[in-house]
What we know:
There is one protein chain. Helix 17 (475-482) packs across helix 29 (746-779). By secondary structure, the protein is of the alpha+beta class. A 7-stranded mixed sheet has the order 16-28-27-26-17-24-25, with helices on both faces. Strands 6-5-7-13-8-11 form a 6-stranded antiparallel sheet, with no helix packed on it. Strands 18-23-22-21-20-19 form a 6-stranded antiparallel sheet. 49% of the residues lie in helices and 17% in strands.
Amino acid sequence: MANTVPEMRSSIISVPESSPPPEIVTFDVSGMKCAGCAKAVERQLMQYSGVISACVNLAVEVATVECQPGVVDADALAKKLTDNGFPSQSRAGGNQREMEVAIIERRQQEIRQQIGQLTIALILIILSGSGHVLGTKAPILSNIWFHWGLATLALLLPGRRIVVDGCRSLWRNAPNMNTLVALGAVTAYTASNAALMFPQMGWECFFDEPVMLLGFILLGKTLEQQARQRAASALQALIALQPATARLVDFKLPILDLDSPSPVYNPQYIEIPADRVRVGEWLQVLPGDKIPVDGEVCEGKTTIDESMLTGESMPILKQTGDPVAAGTINQSGAIVIRATRTGKETTVAQMVALVEAAQTRKAPIQNLADTVAGYFVYGVMAISALTFLFWYFAGTHLWPSVLLGHGAMNMGHGAMGMGHQLPITDYQSPLLLSLKLAIAVLVIACPCALGLATPTAILVGSGIGAERGLLIRGGDVLERVHQLDTVVFDKTGTLTTGELTLTDYLPIFESSGLDGTSDLNVSHRQDACFTIDSQLLQIAAAVEMGSCHPVAAAILREAQQQALPLLAAEDFYTAPGLGVSAVVEGRLVFAGNAEWMTQQGVPIATELCGSFQGKTAVYVACEGVLLGVIGLKDTLRPDAKATVERLRAMGLRVMMLTGDTPGAAFVIANQLDLPTTDVLAQVRPEGKARAIAALQAEGRKVAMVGDGINDAPALAQADVGVGLHGGTDVAVETAQIVLMRNTLMDVVESIELSRATLKKIRQNLFWAFGYNMLGIPVAAGLLLPAMGILLSPAAAGAFMAFSSVSVVTNSLLLRREFRS
């Protein structure tokens, strides 16, 4: 009998060899202007030897590369991107906080430069428009050479970066949005120069077009960049939470007298960078300071503001023994903490990593947009060329009225009346008309809208989640959440508080031949009557010392409250979902459920099982003999029933999955109004994953909500795993959604946020595709013969700028629509 546990232990420890997991490398990539650029960066990354996959996020300018371990040189890969026109920097090594701050500063500097360029462009637009408004009243402003000068300045000053970048991108065979704008502006400028130099051709000069085109594009880019900064504000706030320094104190110093009333006001400290604090070191935190690392309060009492991590506005009381998280703010008292997690292991660092990872993972719905974006600019240039050829060789012959101005209307900027229809009076040249239409096609197409549709919505959605303690791991998770029809909850510690209380003792010492004078040395107390119940509890507590399960916590807590001395125990072993064992006072003792007893060959009477109906029964046995049974009862979380009702109102089926007995499970199910058909009881940890798989085999899309090691297989198997942050690290790492507040109602809120975010993604993609599918044909002259509508290049540029800005603005509206 005693050989059973070692045999099981060896079979569990024996793990088949597997290949090492892929290495993840993250790069900050600048120089991307549109979805075409992002696709070009992905192609360049995939061409590098050792790279398995690459994902580029245009909105946050980050590339995540999955590669073979030890094969890829991150610095060499960054240099390759930089040499190809996309300045890049690996995030491997260095001070992560300093790198993030540098990136934010660089983006703010870019916005300042854009505002400066936009200011110049707007001045040129005002001067250009004044000539049309004042006419002969201001001969200088209406002079053609003055307008030539304005157009030249527009190309050389605010438009220079756009033109240079567009030409370089075309040369590198990776054309982008700037390529289209540069082609349009330079073509318009060149055609106007030809008309100015050779007036006999009868062409009109349209020097105003490059000025207004570049001005509108710069306006759109500036608004878009600022909107993207606002979308990333939640992540930047999280990054800012990470403190820079910590006060290191030595608990051995005489001045830090731990017995004094105020030991924490110790002036003897050393200020060091927070990322260099080591686990176990003591740190002083004064009122108003940020907690530098995750730790445990050793001395003092205070209140902590945890709102940025959990979304809870009420300060939390912390005293000796309580955990504190890095980045939270000490409000009222001075404390000394002992570091338990540092650097990238702290809660706030993990939140930053989770949010950043979420923002780089794409939703499958984005795949079509990415495919189109890879060829978009080439396609637009081809359509522009075909537009020119069609109108020059056929269109003007089929509909000569478009040249004579019979009913043709120009949607241009004339007299600064953007968008108004004005009569065409002098389109006499088929070449000039064809050229204008071709330029309008180049300028109206907007690859930016395609590239920003998904990442900006995810950026805003993940930011809202981070502010409320809801961490959603990416766009793919959002799409799976939208498809859910079933939510399965673990019982203990998830639907219930997990704080079990002991309700019954049933000792069977007499029938086992064991008592207080047996070889199992149960200590007696002199100051109180030491009952048989206490003996059973004392033996159970000794075995449960090696477990962190809620059952173990309840038994140990009760033993402590009764002041029972703990027996010496060793060789602890835990069988997940069954029970525990240990050698107590030299004898092998088992504690667990009925199945665990059966596996150990301990007989249990049927009537004994029935006497603990509706409760969790812990059987205690010693060397094959049952010593007794302890009954425990759990209580529902306060918000459990409301959560179940809300989920049902959303059209979701709610189920409960537990390793507990059917009786205990049905008691909880009745309180939640769950039918017995939706309760799966007495399920082992590996059986939980099979239960989820069985539901999926029925065609269901399943979310699993859990908090323990036992739940990890089921969380991984489910379409969406939801882990409570107060649970084990394994459950949190396995889950796709992590609830930082440890509140059950956040399950509902996370699903609602996911649905709202995916709705925004769909709206953005619909607009991006719809805009281009309608705008390009109109710019190509589709409505010119029948309705006389012609888009000037400047009007097309304004529509292009509006398109990308509208996508980002629509994503920002998610904040307004998802207010609590």
